[in-house]
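Narrative summary of target 7.
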Amino acid sequence: MYIPDLQPIGGSLMWSALIAALPLLTVFITLGVLRWRAHWAGLSGLAVALVGFMAAGKTTVAALLAARLRPHPAVLDKDTVYGSFVAAVLAEAGRDPGEREGPWYDDHVKVHEYGGLTATAREIRSHGCPVLLVGPFTGMIRDPRRWAGWVEELGGGTVRLAWVGCAPEVLRDRIIARGSGRDGGKLAAYEAFVERMRPHVPPPVEHLAIENSVDGPARVAERVDAALHRLLQNTDDGVSGR
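Modeled conformation, tokenized:
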């Protein structure tokens, strides 16, 4: 797990305090100087974790959501950031190139993927920029206590979970259609994979649900718009919602 460095920046409490105040200063500027609407200004330090499984439609939903947010968030997709690195680590260790779960992967790869992604998002947010994280985040979203701890690791503040749901049968068809060599193990024991990952079961923490099992791109965009509307409402009044 990522452990934040609590030492003062440059050994100075003054510099640490100034940098910690940047998100609040950003809100003051956007509200008082730039005259942004309150809910847009409030998003300046926002973190959104967009969660879903491979082939569930995370990338599509992330693009739609990022295009609609103001200010635009920094998009950190786990596969984009760490995909080639993970492939190199698996090859060097002589592991199956499709291995993406299990004790060895969790201990030698996953902990560093999520630790690095979390640290990067925290640093970006510390400068007042919103972040959109894209990945499965299975360990965090299925345990409310782990989710709360991860929110603190991200720097606290406003963190929203957007969950992309998909029916298992639809997900299987999409996995087959994309033809990735990484998916062989999942397809070989698909029922067991679904039982472990539960791609159709909402997480037990507060979230915005975006169902992506059926219909075309236009309907997906409508669902993203509806989720964003709820997000802005909840950012205004400080109440998380689904």
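The chain is about 55% helix and 10% strand.
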